């Protein structure tokens, strides 16, 4: 009995992973130096950070272009498609664990560290020695140095951004339905709306940060509350930026006639990622802004 074997495409060696590693190295070094040089005239850290971001964007578009060309040439088999799905699933799982670590740090600070500093669990000696006037309430609006800040409320921009991301989940769902039905006009409209909502979200987050710095005195020097606030919301904003870029690339491909009801994993991968950042924001909104 003759067996039929499925062709499996083995990609050639690629320079893009190395370029991506260099970009992440520059971003890590640049971000660290930028934080250290906040009140300094030295801006070398920000230059390194911007260079890393530039290299990362170059890597993303270059790698996307390479993969798109391979896909359009029909080099990918069903097994390759399954590999892509497994890879994207594991990537999103790693991102879930990434944010769980930060939420765990927030939980530790609020549920354990703050009560301990207030004298709970037989830590009266710690309370008297380290911070005699400490009040075990969250958010911590006073630093050990005596500097004060204000909490970012959940109304206003945070609530608007929550509505925007929830709306974007609806538009990306309708776009998904449209591509499965080969309704390309609806697909273009709903996917364009999703990209637009992502850009608006990022713009409003920048406005929120400006309000926090200028009006609330909520900065990276605002102690534990300020650090956890910018750590969680900043990393989420970075993920929204990446998700918006992914959706933009997919949108451009659709306008060029790529992807259809039978072959559209690129769209699915971007949609999975977008739903992931939406869920993370809901958790952020509840645990960082509301509670």
From TrEMBL:
The keyword Membrane applies. Its main location: membrane. It is a multi-pass membrane protein. CDD domains: Cyt_c_Oxidase_III. Keywords: Membrane, Translocase, Transmembrane, Transmembrane helix. PROSITE patterns: COX3. The chain crosses the membrane at residues 16-35, 47-68, 89-109, 159-177, 189-209, 229-252, 272-290. Pfam families: COX3. The keyword Membrane applies. It is found in: Cell membrane; Membrane. Its EC number is 7.1.1.9. Residues 4-291 form the Heme-copper oxidase subunit III family profile domain. Belongs to the cytochrome c oxidase subunit 3 family. PANTHER family: CYTOCHROME C OXIDASE SUBUNIT 3, CYTOCHROME C OXIDASE SUBUNIT III. This is cytochrome-c oxidase.
């Amino acid at each position: 009995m003759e067996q039929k074997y499925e062709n499996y495409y083995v990609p050639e060696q690629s320079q893009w992973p190395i370029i991506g590693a260099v970009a992440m190295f520059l971003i890590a070094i640049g971000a660290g130096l930028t934080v250290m040089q906040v009140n300094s005239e030295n801006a070398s850290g920000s230059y390194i950070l911007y260079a890393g971001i530039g290299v990362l964007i170059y890597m993303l578009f270059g790698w996307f272009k390479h993969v798109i060309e391979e896909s359009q040439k029909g080099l990918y088999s069903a097994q390759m498609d399954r590999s892509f799905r497994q890879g994207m699933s594991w990537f999103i799982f790693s991102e879930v664990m990434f944010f769980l670590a930060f939420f765990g740090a927030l939980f530790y600070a609020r549920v354990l560290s703050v009560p301990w500093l207030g004298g709970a669990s037989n830590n009266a000696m710690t309370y008297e020695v380290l911070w005699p006037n400490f009040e075990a309430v969250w958010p911590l609006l006073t630093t050990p140095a005596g500097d004060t800040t204000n909490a970012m409320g959940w109304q206003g921009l945070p609530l608007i951004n929550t509505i925007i991301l929830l709306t974007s989940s609806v538009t990306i769902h309708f776009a998904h339905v449209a591509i499965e039905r080969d309704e390309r006009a609806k697909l273009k409209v709903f996917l364009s709306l999703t990209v637009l909502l992502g850009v608006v979200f990022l713009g409003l987050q920048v406005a929120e940060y400006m309000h926090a710095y200028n009006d609330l005195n909520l900065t990276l020097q605002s102690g534990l509350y300020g650090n956890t606030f910018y750590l969680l919301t900043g990393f989420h904003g970075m993920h929204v930026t990446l998700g918006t870029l992914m959706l933009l690339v997919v949108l451009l491909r659709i306008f060029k006639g790529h992807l259809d009801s039978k072959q559209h994993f690129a769209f699915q991968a971007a949609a999975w990622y977008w739903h992931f950042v939406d869920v993370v924001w809901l958790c952020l909104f509840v645990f960082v802004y509301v509670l």
